[in-house]
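Pipeline run #58 for the internal structure catalog. This entry was flagged by the ingest filter as a single-chain record with no existing model, so it goes straight to prediction. Upstream metadata was stripped on purpose; only the residue string is passed forward. Reviewer on rotation: M.T. Logging verbosity set to normal.
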Amino acid sequence: MTNEIKSQVVGNLGHITLNRPKALNALTYAMCEEITRLLVAWEKDSNIGAVLIDGEGERAFCAGGDVILLHDSGKAGDSRAEEFWRIEYALNELIHRYSKPYITLIDGFVMGGGVGLSVHGRLRVAGNATMFAMPETGIGYFPDVGGTYFLPRLGMEFGQWLGLTGARLDAGQSCHVGVANAYVPSAQHGELIDALGAAKLDGSDAAVANVMIDFVKTPPASALIPRAVKAFGEKTVPAILRTLDEDGSEWAQKQAISIRRKSPLAMCVTFEALRRGAKMNFREVMTQELDISLNFLKTQDFYEGIRAQLIDKDRKPKWSHDDLSGVTEPQVQRLFRKTAKPPQEFL
């Protein structure tokens, strides 16, 4: 048990609230452990007809995971990083195959670990403040928590754009791309929870839909994603960058600037992971992601990115490569080496 998670059963609804608002509800090992315990128990409980997860506070659903712990564990050479990734990825897999309606209210920041908690479930409900991003390449890492499964299935151009640049999507854009599949104004989220708690939920999607129909609205207008996103359908990261440079539009220039600021190694690994993930099933993707994550602990960029962005906060990382031209194919493939225990170690 942990006070970082609040839970209750109201009627036939199991309700989980992430309870670290000062930390933007960032995930810890204890939180993953408790959410897993609740989901497993509620899946077996015939009284529970649906599960809903939201975040405490107005700023975030969940803005990521305990990245400093991963940094410190890698530096120390202990097992904490692997233990965290194992329970987090197992939770992602549990959500992906969950047999009952799984609803997330993704208002506020939805990043990193928060993406893993939400996008693999059946119903992702955006609110007014929804802000989705997978910004991992900026810390010398890659979009994990099943991101290499989910992102390419948005369409490879959209997936590579979001995964490589860490671009942020607001509520309307999240609905347009498919990150969210429903929009309910933030002011009505409490009423929605109450209505679900009062309804007869029998484990079917139809029972949840009967409640949702009274709350779902047209998403707010957002800036359209430019056609230049097609550049992210190129066959290599350098080719993407060349196409953006040649496009010349303001949007394309911003994407090119963003790419040049990220870890060149992380960019190339992310590109390859999404390309592979598009052809894998969920278990295969999560096993591959665990291998990649453990291999990133052996890279300079993982520690330098976290140092520059989250520890010293000087925003001046010294990446292992000056630019994309220095990254070789063997260096990329090294990050995909098998290092993890067999997948049956997952929950």
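catalog note: The CA atoms of residues 89 and 145 lie 6 Å apart.
catalog note: The chain has a mean pLDDT of 95.
status: ready for reviewer M.T.
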